[in-house]
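pasting for ref
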Amino acid sequence: MTNILLETKNLNVSVEGKHILKDFSLQIPRGEVHALMGRNGSGKTSLANVLMGHPRYQIESGEILFKGQVINDLSPEERAKLRIFLSFQYPVAIPGVSLAHFLRTAVRAVRGQELSAKELRQLIQDEAKALDVPDSFMTRSINEGFSGGEKKKLETLQLRLLQPELAILDETDSGLDIDALRLIANRIENIRSENRSILLITHYQRLLDYIQPDRVHVMLNGRIAKSGDKTLAKELEERGYEWIEKEAA
């Protein structure tokens, strides 16, 4: 079994004729948390969507490998069944579909028959309680009328229930007050294991105070401009991105 869970090799991607990822290469070993930082428009969210198989993005060349398997042509549903999870920066509302129904259906689709109906109900109740998600939310339509912070809690609830091998978390910290940030970060930190990897996309050091990354990457113009350990994030907080741009130039 390879130690590299996710690898991108010289990935070139376009959307609506615009070249957004440029010879993008990255390796994430099993059990590691990698933080991806960078200015708006650098390609971070585009990368997350490409890794999950969003059909709007066209892979021009290069490969995405998950557990050594090329997944370029797999649908988002097929990737989810491989245990890849994406937490969206802006979760969408799905009117008419209750949260409880969605969670049960998603867990069954991804985890199969790992849990009995009774075990699944109890797991949902326990995880919702741990995230301060009220019981009343279960009968409401997904993300309809929820605040930004509530939506991020529901995304984290899905993460906890689906138990992916690769979790791609796109700005999970946005819209959260300090108490909600601490709570959600704690629940994410608790899923760390030697067989699960996390790609954490964020603008700010504050999330990395709670979830300690093994590696930090800085994205610039569709490629990784610099990588380092967790001290790189602190340096970015103090100095901004201009010095990275000068080094890259």
